């Protein structure tokens, strides 16, 4: 039996389950210290695998399409933060200050890699360009996101600690493992490519571990006493508004700039999405532990909304016939039957 389009995927259900477990059985005391050490190791492993999985050949193949990549990067790292700031009068009545900090953090994150490429392929977009744009966004986000957090988030009531301390943590926990993975790709790349399905569980397990530790700390600080059902409904509306604005602006801009239909699809999917896989570990590194739960909650919700909406769009656009396909079909229909 086919899975319903709008039913959350297994990973999203696991995220929800992790939040529920952390809400009722949060780690405390010595267990919390141990879990924090394990989480730091898991984050390093996660970015090591990201580095080892990133194919330099695929990046080079799509790197020449610089106009498309520039539009995607500007959408990811300029449009989203500007939207988060410009919509503040609309957003702040709907959510708490801590959740608004999470929304601003969401706006500074890089694009997704796997799902952006998958949706671009489903919708018959420019896949090589999507590989390049999404991968470049993920790599540049290691540097750009902490800088944007320092500019955008810290000016709106959030404490992120010393900028130099943040840079040091990002370098040690994210960048060093990522570079190590890239350097070792010639030796382990083929093994990584053969075992992608198995390594997906390492990726997802690392994220679930970070979520459990973050929400345990948040529960210990009383997060569910400060967030009501009305606030959660407001957060849902905020995420829908933010995604709708990003989809509309990227689609309008790509069309006005004269990109082909395949390139427009790539810009829309790569320029409107945010990475949960990068965002949650980054939040753990950048923010104080007691604030991480509220900071990542908007991202977790946005993640599911973007997957559901983009899945519907990709299937709808993928079902349309491109001009070459229509021309071939018309030629085949008009051709005289062979005897």
UniProtKB/TrEMBL annotation:
Signal peptide: none annotated. Keywords: Membrane, Transmembrane, Transmembrane helix. One of its GO terms (cellular component) is plasma membrane. The chain crosses the membrane at residues 7-25, 31-49, 70-87, 99-119, 131-154, 166-185, 227-252, 282-302. InterPro entries: Na+/solute_symporter_sf (IPR038770), Put_Na-Bile_cotransptr (IPR016833). This is Bile acid:sodium symporter. It comes from Caballeronia zhejiangensis.
């Amino acid at each position: 039996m086919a899975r319903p389009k709008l039913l959350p995927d297994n990973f999203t259900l696991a995220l929800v389950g992790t939040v529920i477990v952390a809400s009722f059985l949060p780690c405390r005391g010595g267990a919390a210290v141990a879990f924090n050490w394990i989480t730091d190791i898991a984050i390093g492993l996660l970015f090591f695998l990201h580095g080892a999985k990133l194919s330099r050949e695929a990046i080079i193949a799509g790197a020449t399409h610089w106009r498309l990549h520039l539009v995607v990067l500007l959408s990811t790292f300029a449009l989203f933060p500007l939207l988060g700031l410009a919509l503040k009068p609309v957003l702040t009545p709907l959510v708490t200050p801590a959740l608004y900090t999470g929304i601003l953090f969401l706006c500074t994150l890089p694009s997704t890699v796997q799902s952006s490429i998958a949706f671009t392929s489903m919708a018959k977009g420019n896949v090589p360009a999507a590989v390049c744009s999404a991968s470049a966004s993920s790599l540049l986000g290691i540097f750009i996101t902490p800088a944007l957090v320092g500019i955008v988030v810290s000016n709106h009531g959030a404490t992120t600690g010393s900028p130099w301390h943040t840079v040091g943590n990002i370098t040690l926990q994210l960048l060093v493992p990522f570079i190590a993975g890239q350097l070792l790709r010639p030796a382990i790349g083929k093994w990584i490519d053969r075992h992608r399905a198995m390594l997906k569980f390492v990726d997802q397990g690392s994220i679930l571990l970070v979520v459990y530790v973050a929400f345990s700390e948040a529960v210990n600080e009383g997060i569910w006493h400060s967030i009501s059902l009305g606030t959660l409904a407001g957060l849902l509306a905020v995420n829908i508004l933010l995604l709708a604005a990003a989809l509309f602006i990227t689609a309008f801009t790509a069309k006005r700039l004269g990109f082909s239909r395949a390139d427009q699809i790539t810009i829309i999917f790569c320029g409107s999405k945010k990475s949960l896989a990068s965002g949650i570990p980054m939040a753990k590194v950048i923010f104080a532990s007691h604030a991480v739960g509220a900071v990542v909650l908007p991202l977790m919700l946005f993640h599911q909304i973007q997957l559901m909406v983009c899945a519907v769009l990709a299937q709808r656009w993928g079902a349309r016939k491109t001009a070459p396909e229509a021309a071939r079909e018309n030629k085949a229909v008009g051709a005289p039957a062979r005897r």
